[in-house]
């Protein structure tokens, strides 16, 4: 080494080191990167302050600006349908790349093939003619003044073939309330929006919350909880891209609006952060569809027999607080089960047994054919969906028989007469056997709420006390029993009976704000339980006075049961198809049947009776035989039954 080279060594050592470059990361703020829709996405880039951002090779750096923390945020529009590549290149070092998958604003994203024909109603909703066959239309915005004098932006538009409404007050707190609509219906059309005039929406907006709803989350129009979840996701993405990030989302709604909250939060956790259900049902397929079918069969059988003239005897079998629940439910059964339910669900294209036997069928399962799949045998030669309703082996009135409230002859008479319904909801002397594939899909995909996903959300239920109304209070306890089984507790569920402790929205807001502020690396369910406000405790209101003594509440407001629990099923009330066991005299607690009655009972149950000591068909993992929670975040683009989406995509270094 020469002296010149030696002389350079100290100078080289003394050179200052370059500051380390912060790690690059690309994150889509408005949705998962693989589920965005509408051609744009709000994106955050962390790392060096000076970078070049490219979308599919084109420079889009100018769309990004630094925020208070130095990270770059920008709305990337011009996404092409399908996969798009967003690349971030620092001044030196490796570039980072994220694949963003865009879907049409008219859907679908994960719900699978859309049902049709579909009638656009953009004009009826004040949006002018539809622009395409997905019923897209340009949004309309107006400025309104809320009751408290605050200005707000009211926006109406189309997403996922439905009509959405968004109300954003000028003092928006970056929290969102989603209002789900009540009722039941399968309409092959956009529907006319109810708007955001209901008291829950106005209360929320006056307190600084943004409020949203959609005809696709109005159960009276579209009883499909998968498209409901998909619509919530898509509209939330639009809100973030248009108005700013959302801190958390609270669900509100009663009856059909309550069951949607449970179904969406359990199967697609993260879309809703807190639930405020009223008149709640644990889910749609068991809470409504199954019991409505039971009641239709029970009322028919009892009306045809001289043994069932006493309303007390009927009530004992129904399990409710009177005959009113089954009377109403029997009348509602066609809304779910009958292909020509009287609503002309698809207009002139609707099914009619004489005029149009190949027409669109108006049943719940046909409206969700992308979830349940088609019956290979069809329906009298016409394509139709698999059906999950089953009553094979169900011993209606079993609890009443054991308790001595009905006679052995009444029990035998009823179960001989009960029969079932064929695929067109025509009564048959034989029991109804479900399509087993549909039963498995309903359990595996979360159409029957299991409760594992619900552990991540606070639930505050305001409920009534009428056991003779089909929103009877037992339904809240069914959900509680499922939470206990799934999570070992129900400490995230609060029941307020016959009253409320101030505004439920205010309590939920405090609950979620405390969870949000907890930055510790502990599981979200633990945070939800830890930060439950002091006033969020089970309570009832007796003569206007709040009571937290649950024994006193149960005495003042007793609860009953449902038709399947009254037939011997357990308190989670969630079997669609039971496993069978042989008929045995010893299983009836000393009830004495005559030889002739026993022969008739054997004839009524040729394949056996329900064995409620075992999980139902489709509820267990075939490999272990144990109860299997549904997998969250399924996509049905691959076909009925769904496949898991897996973890959200993340950026990677090149």
Automatic annotation (TrEMBL):
Residues 26-139, 154-620 form the DUF6351 domain. Residues 615-654 are annotated as: Disordered. Pfam families: DUF6351. InterPro entries: DUF6351 (IPR045556). Residues 645-654 have a biased composition (Pro residues). This is DUF6351 domain-containing protein.
């Amino acid at each position: 080494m020469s002296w010149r080279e030696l002389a350079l060594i100290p100078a080289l050592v003394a050179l200052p080191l370059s500051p380390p470059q912060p790690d690059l990361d690309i994150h889509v703020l408005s949705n998962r990167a693989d589920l965005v829709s509408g051609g744009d996405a709000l994106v955050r880039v962390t790392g060096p302050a000076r970078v070049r951002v490219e979308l599919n090779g084109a420079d889009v750096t100018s769309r990004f600006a630094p925020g208070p923390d130095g990270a770059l945020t920008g709305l990337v529009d011009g996404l092409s349908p399908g996969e798009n590549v967003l690349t971030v290149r620092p001044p030196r070092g490796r570039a980072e790349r994220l694949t963003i998958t865009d879907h049409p604003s008219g859907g679908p994203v994960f719900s699978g093939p859309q049902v049709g024909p579909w009638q656009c109603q953009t004009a009826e909703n004040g949006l002018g003619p539809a622009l395409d066959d997905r019923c897209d239309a340009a949004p309309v915005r107006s400025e309104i003044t809320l009751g408290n004098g605050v200005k707000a932006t009211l926006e109406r538009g189309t997403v996922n073939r439905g009509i959405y409404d968004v109300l954003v007050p000028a003092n928006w707190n970056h929290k969102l309330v989603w209002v789900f609509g009540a009722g039941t219906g399968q309409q092959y059309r956009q529907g006319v929006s109810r708007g955001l005039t209901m008291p829950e929406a106005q209360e929320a907006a006056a307190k600084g919350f943004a409020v949203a709803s959609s005809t696709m989350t109005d159960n009276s129009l579209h009883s499909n909880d998968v498209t409901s979840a998909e619509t919530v996701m898509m509209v939330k993405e639009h809100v973030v891209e248009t108005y700013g990030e959302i801190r958390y989302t609270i669900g509100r709604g009663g009856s059909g609006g309550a069951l949607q909250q449970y179904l969406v939060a359990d199967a697609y956790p993260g879309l809703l952060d807190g639930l405020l259900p009223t008149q709640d049902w644990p889910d749609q397929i068991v809470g409504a569809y199954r019991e409505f079918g039971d009641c239709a069969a029970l009322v028919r059988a009892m009306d045809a027999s001289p043994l069932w003239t006493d309303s007390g005897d009927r009530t004992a079998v129904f399990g409710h607080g009177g005959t009113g629940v089954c009377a109403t439910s029997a009348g509602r059964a066609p809304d779910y089960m009958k292909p020509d339910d009287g609503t002309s669900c698809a207009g002139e294209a609707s099914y009619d047994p004489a005029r149009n036997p190949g027409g669109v069928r108006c049943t719940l399962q046909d409206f969700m054919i992308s979830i349940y799949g088609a019956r290979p045998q069809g329906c009298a030669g016409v394509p139709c969906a698999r059906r999950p309703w089953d009553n094979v082996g169900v011993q209606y009135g079993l609890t009443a028989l054991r308790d001595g409230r009905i006679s052995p002859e009444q029990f035998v008479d009823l179960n001989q007469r009960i029969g079932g319904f064929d695929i067109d909801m025509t009564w048959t002397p034989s029991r109804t056997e479900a399509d087993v594939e549909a039963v498995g899909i309903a359990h595996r995909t979360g159409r029957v709420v299991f409760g594992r996903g619900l552990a991540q959300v606070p639930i505050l239920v305001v409920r009534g006390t009428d056991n003779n109304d089909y929103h009877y209070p037992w339904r809240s306890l069914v959900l509680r029993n499922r939470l206990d089984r799934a999570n070992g507790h129900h400490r995230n569920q609060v029941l307020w009976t016959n009253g409320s402790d101030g505004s439920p929205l205010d309590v939920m807001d405090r609950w979620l704000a405390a969870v949000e502020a907890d930055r510790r690396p502990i599981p979200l369910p633990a945070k939800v339980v830890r930060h439950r406000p002091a006033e969020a405790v089970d309570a009832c209101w007796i003569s206007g006075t709040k009571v937290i003594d649950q024994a006193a509440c149960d005495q003042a407001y007793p609860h009953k049961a449902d038709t399947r629990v009254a037939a011997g099923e357990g308190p989670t009330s969630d079997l669609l198809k039971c496993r069978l066991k042989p008929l045995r005299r010893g299983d009836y607690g000393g009830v004495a049947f005559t030889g002739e009655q026993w022969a008739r009972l054997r004839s009524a149950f040729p394949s056996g009776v329900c064995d409620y000591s075992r999980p139902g068909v489709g509820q267990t993992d075939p490999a272990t035989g144990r109860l299997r929670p549904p997998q969250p975040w399924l996509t049905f683009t691959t076909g009925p039954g769904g496949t898991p989406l897996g973890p959200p995509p993340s950026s990677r270094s090149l």
